[in-house]
Structures are given as structure tokens and as C-alpha cells.
Design goal:
heterodimer, A: alpha+beta, two-stranded antiparallel sheet, 5 strands, B: 30% strand, globular
């Protein structure tokens, strides 16, 4: 199962702990955590499985424990899915 | 340039009855018509220093508040008309002036989408403007009136109109709407405030409008650069404070207070982003108007504005 974004998303990041995300697909605007916004940026142009996403971000994300990182990522993917920002295929 | 106040009382009333009062309000021309005495009295006091446009100029908003026929006079009812059509129910005559102002707001809220529009008061000093968004009852109009009575120019009590790709505000100075307790608060704040007719038992309670064009440059049409966005909140029980707030969070709150952010879609996002990047954002909790005015006067970066 892959995750995908149907939106050409727009971000407003003013280097605070949150990022504004405009979903061009729905026209809705969301306030995301920095990490959630970072995950959304990974879906620009390509659907990814959770594993592919993990492989993509692991080198860039400092985390002492990969299982902790995976747990956080899965939680955020589910929240983004619930917000209809990500779809499953 | 002819001001409305230059007309004799008789001439004004005759023209108003015939619908021949084309008032220049910011970038727009409102043509007004009314045969309701309280509406005439309010316009005469609150718009005396507004320019009458040339009768041949294009009218943006044709507005009338009329009592038509014997029955409407007996019932004490009037009708709000926009371009000759009635978009609302009849109005109790005693609330007619408030409805005129609300109707004038409605015209801008509904029809003007070349700007990003925030439900906000806006004031300026020199070339520096402050935007104050807020839900009804937050205290934005009260603070706007107090600032206007303290040397600030009132750009708008209701609409902050921002051209896309700028952080500028289009001046749209009109009377400030005060409700219930805020009327007494402004009366005790300054004895120089000028008020229009009282509208009682409206859906917002008692409503009075205050003359807003109090400065020499009140009717300048040049846009003014916004430097700060303040979210005011009147609270009797909380400690008064002016505190910075994050831009991203302010972006979302300002979008919530916008009339047309969603309608503008991506252009709205871009317009809001440009605005937010160029203003410092604050929360203002207050219950003492003198304290609040001083807090705004002392805003970092605005001293000497």
C-alpha cells in the first residue's frame, strides 16, 4: 500500500514550530507540525510506501532509535490521512 | 471639491430623498437614498466631511433605505434596497441607521474580491498601519474608536482590504460601529466623540456609530503599509497584556477572520503569506482603553510613526 498526495501543496514556514500548508486539491489550509510538513514534502510527485518513506527520511532525521522514528512517522501518516491530505492506493 | 456638509440642510434632505447623494468612500462611490429622518440625521452628522462625487461618475453601490406607503409608516418599517432590490427583510424604522451602515458593509463584504479582505479594524499613523482582526464583541471597534480619538487615523472599522502581493491597506474610512457597553466606554474615554442616531433592540443590542474621519488625512486614498497585526480581546478578568504571537498561527487566525480567503484559493494563500511575512503579530488582552492605547502607541518599531 502506498501513500500519495493529490495536492500541489504550498508551504509557509517562518521557522517556528509549526508550518502553514495549503492543500490545492481541497482548497483548505492547515497548520502542521514541522515534522508533519516535512513528511508532506516527501510526497511531492511520487507515491511512497511507509518503508520507502522511512528509507528516504532516515538519513536526514536524527533519531536514536529507528523504531521510535517509525512509530512517529506512522502516527503522522495516519493523521495526514485522516485530514484527507494523504490518500492510500 | 464639494463636501456633503457644504449642502444646506434643505438641499441635503431633498437630494437624499431623490437618491442624489453620491458619496466618495475610499475607492468606492456609494449613492444614498432615504426618506427616513433618522437615516438623514445620521448621514448629515457622520458623513459631513465626505466628498460628494460628480453625478456623472460610476456608482459602485446604489443603496436606499425607504419607507414606502402608508402601511409601512404605520408599522414603523423600512426597506433596505441595493440596486433597487431588497436582499433583506423589512427593518424597524428605529434601527434604520444601523442597517444603513451594515448594508454598506455588506456591499463590500459580498462584492469586492480584488482584495484579500479581513474582518478587521485598521488604523494608521504616518505611513504605518495596524490591522486588528476580531470576531464581533472582541473589542476591535472600541479600541479602533479609542485610537481614532487619540490621534490615529481610522482606515476602517470593518474591512482591512489588502491588495494581493502587498502588505498595504486600502483606506475605507467610515463611521465606527459601537455596541452596548462600548458606547459608554467611548463616551467616558473622550468627550470629543461625535455620534449618530441610536439604534435600539437590534440583533446586536444597542448600536451607535461614531464619526471616524477625525484626522486631516482621513480621506487620503493612498494605500498605507501595514507593520503589525494585533488580535485584540476585551476581558475584564484577565491580566492586560500585549504579547507576540507566532506568524504561522496568526496566518491561520487571520484566514479565519477573512471574508474571502477561501474564495481566493491559492491567490488567497499567497496574499496572506505576503501580508503575514511583513507584519509583526500580537495578542492584546485589555479592559482599560487608556492602557490599550498606550500599549499600541508603544509597539516596537512604531514609535515616532
Amino acid at each position: 500500500m502506498k501513500w500519495r498526495s493529490d495536492s500541489v501543496g504550498r508551504f509557509y514556514d517562518s521557522n517556528e514550530s509549526t508550518v502553514v500548508y495549503f492543500d490545492s486539491h481541497s482548497g483548505d489550509t492547515h497548520l502542521l507540525s514541522e515534522f508533519a510538513a516535512y513528511i508532506m514534502q516527501q510526497f511531492a510527485g511520487e507515491p511512497l510506501t511507509t518503508e520507502e518513506l522511512m528509507n528516504k527520511i532516515s538519513p536526514e532525521v536524527e533519531s536514536g532509535d529507528v523504531s521510535d522514528l517509525r512509530e512517529s512517522v506512522v502516527g503522522i501518516l495516519e493523521e495526514l490521512f485522516a485530514l484527507d491530505l494523504l490518500k492510500q492506493e | 471639491m464639494q463636501l456633503l456638509g457644504h449642502l444646506s440642510a434643505d438641499d441635503f434632505r431633498q437630494r437624499l430623498t431623490r437618491g442624489k447623494i453620491p458619496l466618495r468612500v475610499g475607492p468606492y462611490i456609494y449613492n444614498l437614498q432615504s426618506n427616513v429622518p433618522s437615516v438623514a440625521a445620521g448621514i448629515e452628522v457622520l458623513y459631513a466631511d465626505f466628498e460628494l462625487a460628480d453625478p456623472l461618475e460610476f456608482v459602485d453601490y446604489n443603496i436606499a433605505i425607504l419607507r414606502n406607503g402608508f402601511l409601512s409608516r404605520i408599522r414603523g418599517e423600512a426597506e433596505f434596497l441595493f440596486d433597487g432590490k431588497s436582499p433583506f427583510d423589512t427593518i424597524p424604522t428605529g434601527q434604520a441607521y444601523a442597517f444603513l451602515e451594515w448594508g454598506m458593509n455588506w456591499c463590500v463584504s459580498l462584492h469586492t474580491n480584488e482584495y484579500l479582505k479581513l474582518h478587521a479594524a485598521a488604523v494608521s499613523k504616518g505611513n504605518t498601519a495596524i490591522i486588528m482582526p476580531g470576531v464581533p464583541g472582541a473589542g476591535k471597534s472600541t479600541l479602533c474608536a479609542a485610537l481614532g480619538l487619540s490621534g490615529w487615523r481610522i482606515l476602517s472599522d470593518e474591512h482591512a482590504m489588502i491588495p494581493p502581493h502587498t502588505a498595504e491597506i486600502v483606506p475605507l474610512c467610515r463611521p465606527v460601529s459601537l455596541k452596548n457597553e462600548s458606547i459608554a466606554a467611548i463616551k467616558s474615554f473622550s468627550s470629543s466623540a461625535v455620534f449618530g442616531p441610536v439604534s435600539k433592540k437590534t440583533h446586536k443590542g444597542v448600536v451607535v456609530h461614531m464619526k471616524a474621519d477625525l484626522q486631516a488625512d482621513s480621506h487620503d486614498t493612498k494605500n498605507v503599509q501595514a507593520r503589525a497585526m494585533i488580535f485584540p480581546r476585551y476581558s475584564k478578568d484577565e491580566r492586560q497584556q500585549l504579547s507576540p504571537r507566532p506568524r504561522t498561527d496568526s496566518f491561520i487566525l487571520a484566514a479565519y477572520h477573512s471574508f474571502n480567503y477561501s474564495l481566493l484559493c491559492e491567490a488567497g494563500f499567497d496574499a496572506m503569506r505576503t501580508l503575514i511575512e511583513n507584519v509583526d503579530c500580537y495578542d492584546l488582552i485589555y479592559h482599560d482603553l487608556n492602557w490599550a492605547v498606550k500599549a499600541v502607541n508603544d509597539l516596537p518599531g512604531l514609535q515616532g510613526a
